[in-house]
Specification:
By secondary structure, the protein is mainly alpha-helical. It is built from 6 helices and 4 strands. It is elongated. The chain crosses the membrane at residues 27-52, 64-83, 103-125.
Length: 158
């Protein structure tokens, strides 16, 4: 049985045709590309600066900043899962996406967004323990516990 792509052609796997922003005229693709590229680069540079600052400064080697590093790394991965394809659509007119690539992009997008939500929950728990039980904080939030909480947040998202 032959598979029919979404654009009506016969192929071994479905191919999706991406329209981008449907009501946008083609002469505006280039300026919109640069706007999205600027935001993407700001996200990458900002989160990388957070990663470098926390790793380089010994005073920031605390649980709150450990979870902030995880959140920054997940934010980089989250935006990198979708934005490059959108940029290639706007700049090169690359409108086609295979089914496996679409499935992978969708899976990564949803798993990284769920992982970010779980990391935010873990950060809230960390602040709860720090504020409500300050004398028990060093006992509850050990490096082993922090690593386990961060790993479980990432694994639950996957």
């Amino acid at each position: 049985m032959d598979a029919t792509a979404c654009n009506g052609s016969k192929d071994s796997s479905p191919i999706f045709y991406l329209v981008g922003i449907p009501s946008l005229q083609e002469f505006l693709f280039f300026p919109v590309f640069f706007i999205f590229l600027l935001f993407y680069l700001l996200i990458l540079v900002g989160n990388t600066l957070i990663l470098v600052a926390v790793v380089a400064e010994p005073n920031l080697h605390k649980p709150m900043y450990f979870f902030l590093i995880n959140l920054s790394a997940l934010d980089i991965l989250f935006t990198t899962s979708t934005v490059p394809k959108m940029l290639s659509l706007l700049l090169l007119g690359d409108h086609f996406l295979s089914f496996p690539a679409c499935f992978l992009q969708m899976y990564l997008f949803h798993s990284f967004s769920c992982s970010e939500a779980f990391i935010l929950v873990v950060m809230a728990y960390d602040r709860y323990v720090a504020i409500c039980r300050p004398l028990h904080y060093p006992v509850h939030m050990t490096p082993h516990t922090n690593t386990a909480l961060a790993a479980s947040a990432c694994l639950c998202g996957l």
